[in-house]
Amino acid sequence: MTEEHNGRTGFGNRLRRLRQDAELSGKELAGQLGWPASKVSRLENGRQTASTDDVHAWTKALDVSEDVRDELVKDLRSLRVEYATWRRQLSSGFAPRQRAGVVLANATAEFRGLTTSIVPGLLQTADYARHVFLGLAPLHADTTDVEEAVRTRMRRQEVLYQPERHFRIVVTESSLRARPCPLPILRAQLDRLLALSGLQNLQLAVLPSDARLPTSAKHSFWMYDQNLVLVETFSAELAIRDREDIELYERLFEAFWSAALHDQQAFDFIAALALELGRSAAE
After folding, report:
1. For the whole model, what pTM was predicted?
2. Domain 83-282, CATH
3. pLDDT reported for residue 155
């Protein structure tokens, strides 16, 4: 049983005790709330994670004190950050995690992201992606499926050519200059970015190193529609689903977006960097 499931189960038990203390059956509480009885059962048994609105409705129906309600909401926010270690996610190699990324991409209409270390996977060339995976492989025990992972990452990029999906991506200058691969491959990667800038549904912005920042760009993050933020650390991936936390990331993204270069300015910046790297490769 995962830590996430244990957390939901414990939270559900607390909701159940509140209902029992009020001497209501699950069916009676569901009737008061206008919910199907199955929802009350799923929340109490940890098969569904409550929302903040669910907790407010539950505690109001049971005439629970504000202090208890606020404590539940505070604990719920922690519960709604899922911590998935790379050790567990990559136990069978890179490819399964990339396949999960394909499923997530196909279920998303609006993508927003800030990358601070490397070119984002959605925009990588196969050669660039291959070197990224090769660099990560020594950190994980069973990640020998690099070629399959590269093929799956390339398949995930098919969403870029679906006009009903929309992308706004901010890349820092440092992520464009980072060298997880030989210089000629990095140069080709920048050419790929220039080619992708012609897509109508993709807006690519560049945050130069000398830009006036609204706050420090502490880490990369990706936002999927309005209900999920993914943050990667060295040891784990954080999946953030709490609405207040997502709104914070939305504000951060818009602030970095406003500070970045867009359209022709972004194109010119990448083109100039590609030219600079081309001269370096020739020397």
Report:
1. 0.77
2. 3.30.870
3. 95
